[in-house]
Amino acid sequence: IFTTQNKGFGFSSGLGTGTTTGTSGFGTGLGTSGLGGFGGFNIQQTQPGLFGQQAQQPGQAQPTQLFQQVTALSAPTLLGDERDAILAKWNQLQAYWGTGKGYYSNNNPPVEFTQENPFCRFKAVGYSCVPVTKDEDGLVVLVLNKKEADVRAQQQQLVESIHKILGNNQTLAVNVDGVKPLPNDQTEVIIYLVERSLNGTSKRIPATTLFSYLEQANIKAQLTQIGVVMSATRTELSPAQLKQLLQNAPAGVDPIIWEQAKVDNPEPDRLIPVPMVGFKELLHRLQIQEQMTKQHQTRVDIISNDISELQKNQATTVAKIVQYKRKLMDLSHRVLQVLIKQEIQRKSGYAIQVDEEHLRVQLDTIQSELNAPTQFKGRLNELMSQIRMQNHFGAVRSEERYSVDADLLREIKQHLKQQQEGISRLISVIKDDLEDIKLIEHGLSDGGHMRGGILS
């Protein structure tokens, strides 16, 4: 009989994390002899009194099987000498790691050690979310041995195949509620069935009814042909079911560990303790957690891209609002000019009224204030001159082309056109003067010849 304290196996409690939160101690020392403890709690246990207690506790193995396991671990009688003590230690080691056969008697077959046996050390308790969907929602989970991309590409064919398996009933419609990737290139597809009556109303088939139909042997075989490896309902637990689940410890889990796991539950309203037996289950939960982390990161990236797009749209909207404000001010000035002209025409021939005289005095006062050298107009002219100088120097430094306002360019074109017209007229006047000079010279030359003839 051995009495010792459990040593740590080398795994922290964080190794038991699943998709939600941590676990209560995964594994204990391989070299110890405490046959019922779990790491993280350091429980001291002795033989044989503990074995008698465990045989009576709910949720454990059958008494006969447990008695065989205890006999193989503590008092085997296979050889009848001191080698039985070595065999007992070997059986203890097999029970710790949860595999192998324990020989203990020549008259009885060996006991099979599995990871579900109460002495296996590779166990922990994690937490999973409690389902919140009701049976009336009709959600049934199908796990397909296909990649998510392939399932999404062939989603319509999958729906048609399931509808065909359900009997091609025209009053039933198969709908897909969601598609989610799983580890090991598997995909989770959530479906529900809608039944339409002849009067036009429709209702969902309860999840338990649909699941019971899919679990029939012939139907399950047809689902296997299209890649379905597992099906399950996604329904909430009733208070009675939840109470029964929490009261009885699962097979192979020590009730003390189970009670401690319930105490350590961070959110009892949302989470329930779930046993994890063996490294495969631990790896599975770790893969699920990594998969969920990738999905969350993908969703965060999508949200980040949406935020960037919204920021761009906001900047564009702000620019448009400023543009529309300027346009509104311009249109307001134009409307004011139209109203002024209309008012002038309407009151043409009437004497100036008293309110109009007051308004004219106020406008003159405002105009004089604006035209004052130290007031707004003078400062505005000074700022305009400085801006023009800065633009001029900046254009010279950067050797860029001048940017001329459209109105100023029109004035320059008009001025150059007038200059060109003046030059053209000057040229025509000069040409006329040259013609007159030629006529005068010609007349003078003809007069000289005539005088010479007369004199001769």
UniProtKB/TrEMBL annotation:
UniProt superkingdom: Eukaryota
Residue stretches making up the Nup54 C-terminal interacting domain: 402-440
UniProt keyword annotations, A-Z: Glycoprotein, Membrane, mRNA transport, Nuclear pore complex, Nucleus, Protein transport, Repeat, Translocation, Transport
Membrane association type: Peripheral membrane protein
Domain Nucleoporin Nup54 alpha-helical: 250-387
GO biological process: mRNA transport; NLS-bearing protein import into nucleus; nuclear pore organization; protein localization to nuclear inner membrane
Annotated localization: Nucleus membrane; Nucleus, Nuclear pore complex
Molecular-function annotations in GO: structural constituent of nuclear pore
Family annotation (Pfam families): Nup54 (PF13874), Nup54_C (PF18437)
Protein biosynthesis listed as a keyword: no
Cellular component terms (Gene Ontology): nuclear membrane; nuclear pore central transport channel
Coiled-coil features, chain-numbered ranges: none
Function of the molecule: Component of the nuclear pore complex, a complex required for the trafficking across the nuclear membrane.
Subunit structure: Component of the p62 complex, a complex composed of NUP62, NUP54, and the isoform p58 and isoform p45 of NUP58. Interacts with NUTF2.
Record-stated family: Belongs to the NUP54 family.
PANTHER family, sorted: NUCLEOPORIN P54
The protein's name: 54 kDa nucleoporin
Organism encoding this protein: Takifugu rubripes (Japanese pufferfish)
Primary gene name: nup54
